[in-house]
Amino acid sequence: MFRLIFFAGALLAFSGCEQEEYSLGDLTPPSNIEITAQIVGVSTATPNGDGSGDVNFTIKATGALAYKIDFDASDGISLVHLTTGKASRKYTKLGTNKYTVTAVVYGKGGTSSTATKEITVQSNFTPDASIINNLTGGTSKTWIVDKTVAGHFGVGPWEDGTPSPIWWAAGVNEKVACCNCFYTTTFTFAKTASGYSLTVVSPDGVFTKTGALAGGLPGVPDGGDEGCYPYAGGTGAFSFVPSSTGVSPSAPSTKTAIQLSGVNTYIGYGSLQKELEIMVLSSDYMYLRAQGTETGNAWYLKMVPK
After folding, report:
1. Do 169 and 117 reside in the same domain of the chain?
2. N or C: which end of the chain has fewer CB within 10 A?
3. Going by C-beta distance under 8 Å and a sequence separation of 6 or more, which residues neighbour residue 136?
4. Within this chain, do residues 187 and 162 fall inside the same structural domain, yes or no?
5. Any idea of the CA torsion for 239, 245, 248, 250, to the nearest 10 degrees?
6. pTM score, whole prediction
7. Is residue 25 one of the residues assigned to a domain?
8. 77 and 172 housed in the same domain
9. Is 209 a member of any domain?
C-alpha cells in the first residue's frame, strides 16, 4: 500500500512539472538608434565648433534599457556607461579632427545593438603664460619625482568627484629599495621653435608595469612584476591641452594637461596614459594626475626641479 501511494504521488509531481512552461518574452534587440551630437559653438563661421572642443551627445533607440558610448574609436575601445542616453565630452586634440563615436544600446535579456557616427571638432587652446614659464623655465627645465615628501606617488579612483590618492600614497623614499630608477630619472621640458619637447633620461631604467600596461614604451618585456626595466631614453613632442576630465578647479586643478605624443616618452611612471592633468604648478613644485593603463585607476605624482 505504501508503495502504491508513493508511486501515485511521484506520478502527480512528475505530471505537474511537465505542465510548467517558461518564456523569456520578446528578445528583439533595440532598433532605430539615433546619435545626436551637438558641437558647442557651431555657426556658419565656425562649422566645427567654437574651439572649446565641447560636444553634447543624445542617444535614442526603440527598446532601449541602457546605454554605453565610446567617444573616439582611434584610441581603442573604451565604453562609458550612461545612466541616461545623454553625455558630454571635451575633445582636446588640437586643431580640426575627425572622431568616430560608437553607441551600444542594450535591451531585454541582454540584447544589444550598435551604431556609429563621425563628427569633426575644432579644439583651440592657449595655456596660461605662467604654466609655460613654470614648466619650462622659459627655455628648458629639468624635473624629478620628489622622494623627500609623503604622497609623492599615489593611486585613487579615476573619478572626477574624488581627485586624490585615497587608495594608497607612498611614504618618504618608499621606492628606493625596490625601484630607485623612479627617483634617478630626469624629465626635461623645453620650448622649441615648433612647439614643446620632453626629453627623458633614465640611467637606471623605467619604473613601470610590463606588457600592455607599459603603455607602449619600447623595450619593456611582455611579462614580469612592476619594477625598473631597461629604457634607452627618448625625446618627443608634447602639447598643452585643456584637461579632458571634469575635475573642479577648486580640487585644485589648473584645467590644463600635458599631452605627450607617441609612445617613447613618459612622465614619472611608465604605466600611465599620455594625458597628464596639471593639478598644481609653481616654479618649484608640480602635482600631476593621470589615468593609469589599468582601467579605473588615477595616479598622482609630485615633482620638483632637479
Report:
1. no
2. N
3. 189, 190, 191, 196
4. yes
5. -50
6. 0.71
7. no
8. no
9. yes
Residue 1: is it exposed, middle or buried by C-beta count within 10 angstroms (0-12/13-18/19+)?
exposed
Instruction: List the grid coordinates of 64.
Output: 532601449
- For residue 275, give the 3-state DSSP assignment: strand
What's the CATH number where 173 sits?
Answer: 2.40.128
C-alpha cell at 275: 594625458
Same-domain status, 73 and 210: no
Q: Are residues 177 and 91 in the same domain?
A: no
Q: Are 274 and 193 in contact (CB under 8 A)?
A: no
pLDDT at 7: 42
Phi, psi values for residue 188, rounded to 5°? -105, 120
Tell me: do 143 and 232 sit in the same domain: yes
Neighbours of 292 (CB within 10 A): 18
Cell numbers placing 125: 587652446
Domain boundary among 88, 123, 158: 123
pLDDT at 8: 44
Q: How many CB atoms lie within 10 A of CB 30?
A: 23
Return the percent helix, strand and coil in the chain, to nearest 5.
15, 40, 45
Which grid cell sits at 9? 504521488
Q: Are residues 61 and 178 in the same domain?
A: no
Examine the domain organization and report whether 55 and 153 are in the same domain. no
Query: Pairing state of beta strands 196-201 and 206-208?
Result: unpaired
- Take residue 81 and report the three cell numbers written for it: 556607461
- Residue 272 is predicted with a pLDDT of 96
Tens of pLDDT, residue by residue over 256-270, are: 999 998 889 999 999
* Separation between Cα atoms, residue 285 and residue 177, nearest integer Å: 25
Q: How many domains does the chain have?
A: 2
The confidence score (pLDDT) of residue 4 equals 44
User: To which residue does cell 622649441 refer?
Assistant: 192
CA distances, 174 to each of 150, 189, 219, 226 (Å): 9, 26, 25, 14
Domain final residue, candidates 123, 153, 187: 123
Of the candidates 81, 266, 215, 93, the residue with the CA atom closest to the CA atom of residue 159: 81
